[in-house]
Amino acid sequence: YVGMFMFDFKVCDPFVCTFGNNICIFVRPGSSNTPPTARIVATPTSDFAPYLTNFVLISCNYSNASIRLNGFLSSDAESPNSELTFRWFLEPMSLPFAEGVVVSNRLELGPQTVRLDVTDPQGATGSESLTLDVITVKEAIDISIQRVEDYDGLTEAEKRKFIEILKVAGVSAERDHVEGEPHGQLTVLLLELFQYKVYQDLY
User: How far apart are the first and last CA of the chain?
Assistant: First the structure.
C-alpha cells in the first residue's frame, strides 16, 4: 500500500487502559527493479531468406563453424553494463558454455539456438535467444544458385554467368575439404562477396 496512514495506540495493564497518541505514517512508492534487456549480435552470419528462415553460419570444414557472440547492446535501467552478468547457453543445455560480454564458440551443423541470460546485481534476469542454421559451403552455394535461377530480373546469359562463378567456388570448396584443408575461409569470403553482388543486382 502507498499513501498516508493514521494509527491510534493505547497502553493497557491488568486494571486500566490509557490512550497514548496517534501515529501518522507515510508510505512512499518504492523503486521497482526491472530485469535487463538482453541483445545478441552474432558474426559472421548470412541471410538466405526466403530459402532459409534463420540467419546462416557457413561451415568451412563440413562439421562445425566458429561464431563470435556479443552482448554489448544489452542494457539495464538501474545498472551499468559493467555490473551485469552475461551467461551464454546452447539450448537445451542447462549449463552455460561461456560467460562474458563477448565470447566465441563452435556450432555443429544443423539448427542451433544460442541463448543469452543477462542478470543485474539484484538477481533479475532478461534473456534473448537466436536460432542459426549451420550449413556447409556446398549447401550455401546450392542455395545461391537456386536464388539466381528463380530470379526473373536476369537474362539467361546473366544467370549462366552467375551460376558458373558459383560452381567454380563450389569446386574450390570441395578441393579444400578433400585435400585436408578444412578451413577454406577464402572460399567463404568469395561466396559472401558474391552474395552481396547478387543481392545488389537482384534487388
Answer: 58
pTM of this prediction?
0.71
Tell whether omega for the bond before 44 is within 30 degrees of 0, i.e. cis: yes
What are the cell numbers at 161? Answer: 554467368
CA dihedral 33, 37, 38, 41 (to 10 degrees): -150
List all residues 6 or more positions away from 163 whose beta carbon is below 8 Å from its beta carbon. Answer: 145, 148, 149
pLDDT of residue 16: 66
pLDDT at residue 162, as a whole number: 79
